[in-house]
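The passage that follows is intended for readers who have already worked through the single-chain material. We present the inputs for a multi-component assembly, then the predicted structure in tokenized form, and finally a short commentary. You are encouraged to pause after the input and sketch how you expect the pieces to fit together before reading on.
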Amino acid sequence: MTDQDHIIFIVDDDIRIREGLSELLESYGRHSVCFGSLSEYVAFPRPTLPACLVLDVELPDVNGLDFQKQIANERHPPIVFITGHGDVPSSVRAMKLGAVDFLTKPFSDNALMDAVDAAIGQDRISRLDEDQLQELQRRFSALTPREREVLPLVVSGLLNKQAAAELGITEITLQIHRSKIMHKMRAASLPDLVRSAQRLQIPLVQSRRTGNS
Amino acid sequence: MHVRPHGSEAIVPRTTLGHHREVKTLCGPRRPTVMNSGVFAMLSPIVRCALAISAAVVLAWLIREPWPLLGAVAAVSIYFGRWPALLSIATFALTVGVVSYVSDPNGFSEFKTYSRSAALLIAALAVGLGLPNRSVLPNGTEDDARLIVEKMPGLAWSTDPSGNFKYVNQSVLDYVGVPPDDLNRVEGLDDFGWRAVVHPDDADRAIGLWLHCLRTGEPYESEHRIRRFDGSYRWFRAVGRSSHDSRDRITGWYGTTIDIDARKQMEEALRNSEQQLRLLIDTIPALVWCATPDGEPSYLNKRLMDYIGLTLESFDGTSNTSRRSAAMHAVVHPDDIQKLDRGWTHSVITGGSFGMQFRLRRADGVFRWVDSRGEPLRDDHGSVTCWYCVNVDIDDATRMQDALRSTSDGLARASQAASLAEMSASIAHEVNQPLAAVVANSYACKQWLSTEPANIDRARITMDRVIRDANSAADVVSRTRALFKRRASIKRPLQLNTVISEVLQLMSDEIAANAIYFQLDLSSDLPSIAADRVQIQQVFVNLLRNGIEAMQSADYSQRSLSVRCRPNGSQMILVQVQDRGSGLSDMDRAFEPFFTTKDDGIGMGLAICRSIIEAHNGRLWAEKSGHEGTIFSFTLPVHDDVRT
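Having made your guess, compare it with the prediction:
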């Protein structure tokens, strides 16, 4: 599991399907974990890896489509549905809620692999984004209260003296804060800092003295 | 000339012998005699006698001898009867002796006279005794007639042309207890004394009619109550006929008045009971009608006339159709006319009980279902004299039943459809799961083999799984087949006739609702078979329903379904179900599973039937019946214990 950069969860009540799918994925070098029911899957501590869920629609405990609706607002890996008899309304519904694919059993290896790879890729990207954001948030949380006051002024494009005037501090003190912020946020340049601030959704401020400058 | 009649006890005013002429003729034709011929015959016997005696008196006076007179008297005596004759002659001889002794004292002459008288007496005796019939009959007939009139149980009377009584017999006087003169015409008025003895309610009618008859000479016939001497009234029937002279003038009236009280009372009782019956028939909550032996309606009770708003006579309007046909077209639903006509004709021809349900038009134009039943009334020879029928309105019940049936039909269809869809989905899922696994494993296997180097071990493992899952799919298929397989049948000795009657009980509604003419032709001495009751019932239900459905688009007159059971050799029983439906397009394919020509069928019925019959070692086949329709025949072996 050490070199593993992804994980595929398979939920199907039929062990033969689970075996067949995990064998097929394994033959293509994909790692998978199988569950007989959704409750087992939910109970499983998911590793923080790009992942995808291959989910049977007809399950004994919860219908797969209903489960998809339940987790719609949570952070969850993309879903590839598999079903014994796919009908158009349920597939449309599933796709609208963000399913990657809706496969009718039996399906070809290519169909499954394409869907699974697409799902993992999608998850990887969203996971990456998330990781970056978390890193930025972590850095942002390291700032002192004064520094958090200074940051919006700096990224809003105010001159040092304007920002110092806003806060009622000297320009020198502001410059010290600014360099500390750049360091703590690991920003190589001012535009870099601005991008980070954007991702953190820090609101911009207007200088009250803009008109005098 | 007034003479007292012979019956001296009778009080008969102004009676003459003459008025008995008609009575006499009643007693038989008069004997032809010399006196009856010529002018002499026109005179009455009394006049004739008087003439004869007068002539003898003249002759006796002329020859101064008594014997012509004696002879004449003897002849008259002989004419009227023996005893009066003897009496007359004896009297006369005595008279002659006394006369001759007084007139002629000569002894020899006296002797001569006596000896002549004796000789005449002997001669008269001889004649009287020797010819009794000839001399007695006419007088006896008159006596008999007189006696008949006097003693007859009825009241006999005669009147003159104005209605005054000339004669009434004793019974009249005994009954009314009123002197005959009090019964006569009231002087100067069109009224009679006998009004007093006639019931006041009947008097005007009876007297009016009598006056009318007196004027016109028409025969008088009247029924009225007459008061008895004790004041009670009894019903009498008076009949009078007029007599006429040669110029066709009414000379008098002769009549009888007969006690009909017992008959009247019986009539009254009958009328009462009839009225009560009619009241009953009109009051009971049923529509009653009668028909003639050839099926023409002859009576409708009031309730039925009110119901249809028509009377029996209103069916006679059209001359070119029968009353029956007019009635059917007037009040029976057009779709039911043929069925009813056929059923009714069948009953009328065979004389069997009639029973049918059809729609009858109510006065407000609404057709309502009625249950009609009829039974024939037969005379002593067994031929039908009348049909008595009753219709009962069963519309509400029928509608409820229809609603129930359509609900249950719908339910059955829905559940059938649902279970089929469910079952097929479940079977598909059961097969598809292992197949999907097989496909996945196969791809995996292929993938293991196509890596460099090929992972043979993993490929083998996946192949094992492929085999395992493919087998599991096959298992599902064979389990499914087992699911459809019949359960083990329980064969018991069974009477086919019983099974058929049970099935008919189940399906009678369906047969009636489709207006199907059903014929059952069972051989009463069928041996029993060894069979599973439920399965054989299922075969019958399937075949009958098949026949009913085949005739759904057929005309009502064509809808007939028959079941026949016959021994077929000593080992088998042959059953035939024949319909007159659209027929089968493909006799052989009909028995294939899932072959159907019906929109709503699944095509399993006949296939199941055939497999059931074959499981019972019988055979089921279909053939065309004549121009239209199909005969489904099957054979079943006779039960082993019965077979010899």
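Commentary: The longest helix of chain A spans residues 109-142. Chain A is about 55% helix and 10% strand. How closely did your sketch match?
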